[in-house]
C-alpha cells in the first residue's frame, strides 16, 4: 500500500464525502467550521472560490452533497449544507475588496462568451483576472441566464442574482446585452482569439395528445410559462390548474400557479412518487403548499368545449417489473 499523499487535494476530496459529492468540490467542512466560528465572510469566500454563486446556490443548489453527508447515516437528516451556504451569504459583510480586481495589465487575448448564464459567467470570473479581454453577449437585458428567467423569484430573488452576477460583471467585462448572436460566422469575423458558447438548453417538451391544438390557449409549456412570469407577461392563472410532470420544473410551475391565483392546483405524474425526478425537498415544498401529487396517471386527452380546456383524461396505471427489473406501466 502506498503512503497517503496528503499534498494531493484528491485525497481529501475522497475522504470528505460531501466535498467529493459536490460537483464543484466545495470544501464543506472548512466553511461550516468558519460559520460556527461566526466568520461568515470567510465562509462565503471559501464558497465563492469553489462554486462562484454561494448566495444563489444556498437557495437553489440541488445539493448532491447532502445525501453523501455522513451524519445522514446516524441521524434522520444530513447537515443542511446547502442552506448553510445561504447563511454565510446572508450574514457576510461587504466582501467586494476581497474579490479579484480587474486586471491592470491585459494579456492581449480577446474572448467572446455567447450567453451570460452561469456557464459563461464562470468562464468570465476565472479568465478576466488573468488579463483576458472578455466580451459577454446575451439576448436578455441582464446576466444570469435561466437562473434569472426560469427559477421563480420566490426561490431566488433578483437582489441575490444581481449581487453575485454583478461581482463578475464588475471585473472589467464588456457587456453586449439585448443582442442575439444569429451567426457564428459574423462573430468569428470580429477576430476573437476564442469563443465560448454558453447558450444553455432552453427547450421544454410538448405533449401532442388529442385536443392539444383546440385547447391550446389554456395549455402552456412549463419552461416558457415560467419565463413569461419572470418577464411580467403572465401575472395570473385560472383557479383550477393541473401541472403534468414530476421534475423540478413541474414543482416550480405548481408553486408559481399557487401564487398567481390557482386555488385547486394538482401535480399529475405518470410514474410513482419515489421515481419522480424532482428533488425530495422540492416535492415537500409543493405539498406544504397544499398541492397534491397524484401518481401513476398517464394523460390521454385534453377535453375542450368551444376552444376552452375543460379537463384532461387520464389512464390509471400500475408499475410492473420484469425479471431484469425493467419497469412497464
Ligand atoms: C424551471 C427551471 C428551474 C431550475 N431550477 C434550478 C435549481 O433550482 N437549481 C439549479 O442548480 N439549476 C436549476 N435549473 C437549471 C439551471 O437554470 C441551468 O442548469 C443553468 O442556468 C444552465 O446554465 P447555462 O449558463 O449553461 O445556460 P443558461 O442559464 O440557459 O444561459 C444561457 C444564456 O444564453 C442566452 N442565449 C442563448 N442563445 C443565445 C444567442 N444565440 N445569442 C445570445 N444569447 C443567447 C440565453 O438567453 C441565456 O441567457 C433550473 C432550470 C429550469 C428550466
Ligand atoms: S450545496 Fe451545492 S455547491 Fe454547496 S457543497 Fe452542496 S453540492 Fe456543492
* C-alpha Rg (nearest Å): 23 Å
Largest sheet: 4 strands, parallel
Number of extended strands? 11
The CATH topology of the largest domain: FAD/NAD(P)-binding domain
Bound molecules: flavin-adenine dinucleotide, iron/sulfur cluster
Poorly predicted runs are: none
Label the overall shape.
globular
| Average of per-residue pLDDT values | 95
Give the C-level CATH assignment of the largest domain.
Alpha Beta
How many independent structural domains?
3
Number of helices: 15
The oligomeric state of the chains shown is: single chain
What report would you give on this structure?
With 329 residues, the protein is an alpha/beta fold. The chain has three domains: 12-98, Orthogonal Bundle (Fumarate Reductase Iron-sulfur Protein, Chain B, domain 2); 110-197, FAD/NAD(P)-binding domain (3-Layer(bba) Sandwich); 216-328, FAD/NAD(P)-binding domain (3-Layer(bba) Sandwich), CATH 3.50.50. It contains 15 helices and eleven strands. It has helices at residues 9-15, 17-21, 28-36, 40-51, 54-60, 65-68, 71-74, 81-91, 118-127, 146-149, 158-169, 184-188, 222-230, 248-259, 280-288; strands at residues 110-114, 133-137, 174-176, 194-197, 240-244, 264-268, 293-294, 297-305, 308-316, 320-321, 327-328. It has a four-stranded parallel β-sheet with strand order 3-2-1-4, with helices on one face. Strand 10 and strand 11 form a beta hairpin. Helix 3 crosses helix 8 (81-91), helix 5 packs across helix 8 and helix 14 packs parallel to helix 15 (280-288). The protein is globular. The model has no long low-confidence stretch (mean pLDDT 95). Iron/sulfur cluster is lined by residues 22, 24, 26, 28, 51, 57, 61, 63-65, 81-82, 85. Iron/sulfur cluster binds next to helix 8.
Amino acid at each position: 500500500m502506498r503512503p497517503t499523499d496528503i499534498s494531493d487535494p484528491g485525497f481529501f476530496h475522497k475522504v470528505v464525502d460531501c466535498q467529493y459529492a459536490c460537483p464543484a468540490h466545495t470544501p464543506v467542512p472548512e466553511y461550516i467550521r468558519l460559520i460556527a466560528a461566526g466568520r461568515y465572510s470567510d465562509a462565503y469566500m471559501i464558497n465563492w472560490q469553489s462554486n462562484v454563486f454561494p448566495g444563489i446556490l444556498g437557495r437553489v443548489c440541488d445539493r448532491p452533497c447532502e445525501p453523501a453527508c455522513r451524519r445522514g447515516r446516524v441521524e434522520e437528516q444530513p447537515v443542511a449544507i446547502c442552506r448553510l451556504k445561504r447563511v454565510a451569504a446572508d450574514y457576510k459583510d461587504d466582501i467586494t475588496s476581497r474579490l479579484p480586481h480587474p486586471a491592470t495589465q491585459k494579456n492581449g487575448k480577446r474572448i467572446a462568451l455567447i450567453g451570460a448564464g452561469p456557464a459563461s459567467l464562470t468562464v468570465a470570473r476565472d479568465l478576466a483576472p488573468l488579463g483576458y479581454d472578455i466580451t459577454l453577449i446575451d439576448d436578455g437585458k441582464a446576466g444570469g441566464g435561466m437562473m434569472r428567467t426560469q427559477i421563480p423569484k420566490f426561490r431566488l430573488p433578483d437582489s441575490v442574482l444581481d449581487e453575485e452576477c454583478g461581482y463578475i460583471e464588475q471585473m472589467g467585462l464588456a457587456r453586449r446585452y439585448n443582442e442575439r448572436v444569429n451567426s457564428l460566422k459574423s462573430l468569428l469575423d470580429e477576430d476573437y482569439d476564442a469563443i465560448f458558447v454558453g447558450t444553455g438548453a432552453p427547450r421544454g417538451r410538448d405533449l401532442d395528445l388529442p385536443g392539444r391544438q383546440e385547447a391550446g390557449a389554456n395549455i402552456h409549456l412549463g419552461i416558457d410559462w415560467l419565463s413569461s412570469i419572470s418577464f411580467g407577461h403572465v401575472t395570473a392563472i385560472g383557479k383550477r390548474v393541473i401541472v403534468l410532470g414530476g421534475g423540478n420544473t413541474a414543482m416550480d410551475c405548481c408553486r408559481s400557479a399557487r401564487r398567481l391565483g390557482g386555488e385547486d392546483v394538482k401535480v399529475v405524474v405518470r410514474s410513482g412518487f419515489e421515481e419522480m425526478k424532482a428533488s425530495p425537498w422540492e416535492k415537500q415544498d409543493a405539498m406544504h403548499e397544499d398541492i397534491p401529487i397524484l401518481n401513476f396517471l398517464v394523460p390521454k386527452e385534453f377535453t375542450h368545449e368551444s376552444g376552452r380546456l375543460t379537463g384532461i383524461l387520464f389512464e390509471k396505471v400500475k408499475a410492473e417489473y420484469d425479471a431484469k427489473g425493467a419497469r412497464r406501466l
